[in-house]
Amino acid sequence: MRIDIHTHAFHPKIAAKAVAHLDQSYDVHCQGDGTVEHLLACQRAAGVDRCVVLCAATTPAQVIPANNYARELQRAHPEIIGFGTLHPAYARWEEELHNMERDGLRGIKLHPDFQGFRLDDPRLLPMFEAAQGRFIFEIHIGSSQPAAQAPSCPLKLAAIARAFPGLTLIAAHFGGYLMWDLAAEALAGFDNVWFDTSSTSPFTPPGLLRRLLDAHPLERFLFGSDWPLYDPAEEQQRLQRVGGLSDNALERILTNAAQLPGLL
């Protein structure tokens, strides 16, 4: 089964506004319109069977609406695996973990930069402890800032992986957007860390992407398009071209997520 582990889709009322914000914030031209219908059409055209849609809350008050939307998408579309979210300032997080588990949400998305906290915020520690063996965490890693000042970085994720060996962690963007050399060094050898391939191949030269692919076992890489920023079919082609992947290696990356503990 081919799975895209890193996508976004927005409520139809805000999809156009959300895509415009992405265009402006990241200086890109999004390849999708942000709606779930277009997402699924692009995934079908790319030969992808299932996709994870990630939701994140910029404030504690948005945790429940974001998670409800993840539930709604997962119920309405069998091709979608919905990931909810938490926020370190959300007081009733234990209750929400229970509710997400009850309702079949398998994962949690954290985007420290977007959500306005640091990945080493001590308020996250009891959440990680409680989530071990229950949820997959997909976490944005990387920044243009130095590691010490960045809201997220490979070093902060490595500390979490060491402290919580039962926590299943996906490090987005090959483990560290704009911090790829640090990611290759700091995140090597962990049994509980996987890497998604999103938002990396457009920015890295072939030699760097090849080094990243060689830094970890092939089964640790999970295909991610970051739709609507990028089209999954084009991302497969670019990943293969820039990374020098064989057809067999690309197919393994596309299907590795099917073996990720707790996803299916």
TrEMBL record:
SUPFAM superfamilies: Metallo-dependent hydrolases. InterPro entries: ACMSD, Amidohydro-rel, Metal_Hydrolase. Residues 3-258 form the Amidohydrolase-related domain. GO terms for biological process: secondary metabolic process. The lineage of its organism: Bacteria, Pseudomonadati, Thermodesulfobacteriota, Desulfovibrionia, Desulfovibrionales. GO terms for molecular function: carboxy-lyase activity; hydrolase activity. GO terms for cellular component: cytoplasm. Keywords: Lyase. It holds the Pfam family Amidohydro_2. This is Amidohydrolase family protein. It comes from the Bacteria.
